[in-house]
Design goal:
- The protein is of the alpha+beta class and about 350 residues long.
- Among the domains are: about 105-205, Membrane-bound Lytic Murein Transglycosylase D, Chain A, CATH 3.10.350.10; about 215-360, Glucose Permease (Domain IIA), CATH 2.70.70.
- The protein has seven helices and 15 strands.
- The protein has helices at about 20-25, 30-45, 115-120, 125-130, 130-135, 165-170, 175-180, and strands at about 105, 145-150, 155-160, 200-205, 210-215, 235-240, 265-270, 275, 280-290, 295-300, 305-315, 325, 330-335, 345-350, 355.
- The strands form four sheets. Strands 7, 8, 9, 10, 11, 12, 13, 14 and 15 form a nine-stranded antiparallel sheet that branches.
Length: about 350
């Protein structure tokens, strides 16, 4: 007898792995399945745009820097002439040191020329030469609220004149044609550089004389400067000081002799090799050894009738004719000359007459 055909089995319309009975029987827990599903969902949602959709356009981030400022002069290579605009800025732009064009800085209360230059890693002269129309080579004209141009490199900010050529400007301000043309902020075509009249140009490494002249006295013509081989000869120019004095040291206490008719200065307590700073802007007129007991000595002419003396130094860091500012490092304190221990002999003289520093220093 023929065996009856078994009853036809019903075809399952979906794969077995989609059945919960399949996974339950395989020993895989539903918790594990849930964890795998959550992991896949997280990967999908955190993928960058276009990863799962190749047709999605890539996005580009737009960044701005302190150079984006409508009040700044345009680079020389641009096709139009510009002038200086000194609009009031409600904030301060601190430049990225990678910038190649000028930025702006609003002077804050307590700022000095030296502190601003230090903040932007520039020489103080570069602050003056970047703002000659406002500061006129005089740091005493600095005041809160002023808007200053900050150069990206030591040098000058120069407005092009009708008779100028690259060669004449480079020669006049002690820089090179290549330095001007190749500076990226000037936006010049190196094959055919063209600068329109009135355009502003950065002159990297440039320098010029100051507007103020310091009359220098030769040895023997004045007791003030007949002090030894450190005296400076000739004439120099620089930027003047003011009546706003600063202490030359961080310590303000006496160590030794006070100011008297026979001792024309004060002996300030210091430790060996303590930094000694200029008390105000001026020009160095003595830098070196003194035969009159001062030892290593620096004298600064402040171009307004005042001179300051910094004596018994262990070393001096400035040279004849060098422009200094309030806070400039002049040298390190010591005990050279007629001295029995480390101290700074500090003098202040007006028209050659010693003045009591206690009544002048803050």
């Amino acid at each position: 007898m023929a065996e009856a055909n078994p009853a036809p089995q019903q075809r399952n319309s979906r794969p077995a792995y989609l059945s919960w009975k399949f996974w339950a029987g395989s020993g895989v827990s539903l918790a594990a399945l849930a964890a795998v599903g959550y992991w896949a969902w997280t990967i999908f949602n955190s993928s960058p745009a276009g990863f799962f959709n190749p047709a999605a356009p890539p996005t580009t981030a737009i960044s701005t820097t302190g150079d984006v400022n409508s009040t700044l002069p345009a680079p020389a290579g641009l096709a139009h002439s510009v002038g200086i605009l000194r609009a009031v800025a409600p904030h301060t732009n601190i430049p990225d040191r990678g910038s190649s064009w000028v930025t702006q800085y609003t002077v804050q209360r307590g700022d000095t020329l030296t502190s601003i230059a230090t903040q932007f890693h520039l020489k103080p002269e570069s602050i003056l030469w970047g703002n000659a129309d406002v500061l006129q080579d005089d740091p005493n004209l600095l005041k809160p609220g002023q808007l200053l141009y900050i150069l990206p490199v030591d040098g000058m900010f120069y407005q092009w004149e009708k008779s100028d050529t690259l060669a004449s400007v480079a020669a006049q301000y002690d820089t090179t044609v290549e330095a001007i043309v190749e500076w990226p902020g000037n936006d010049l075509n190196p094959l055919a550089p063209q600068i329109v009249v009135g355009a502003w140009v950065i002159l990297p490494g440039a320098s010029r004389p100051f507007q103020w002249e310091a009359p220098m006295l030769a040895t023997g013509r004045s007791r003030t400067f007949a002090l030894g081989p450190g005296v400076c000869q000739g004439k120099y120019n620089g930027t003047p000081g003011s009546d706003a004095w600063a202490w030359p040291t961080s310590s303000h206490t006496l160590s030794g002799y006070d100011f008297t008719s026979t001792h024309p200065g004060i002996d300030v307590a210091i430790y060996l090799d303590q930094p000694i700073h200029a008390a105000q802007a001026g020009v160095v007129v003595f830098s070196g050894w003194s035969d009159r007991g001062y030892g290593l000595l620096v004298i600064v002419d402040h171009l307004n009738g005042w001179h300051t003396f910094y004596a018994h130094l262990d070393q001096y860091n400035v040279n004849c004719g060098q422009q200094v500012y309030a806070g400039t490092l002049l040298g390190l304190g010591g005990t050279t000359g007629n001295s029995t221990g480390p101290h700074l002999h500090f003098e202040m003289r007006y028209n050659g007459v010693p003045q009591n520093p206690w009544g002048l220093l803050p």
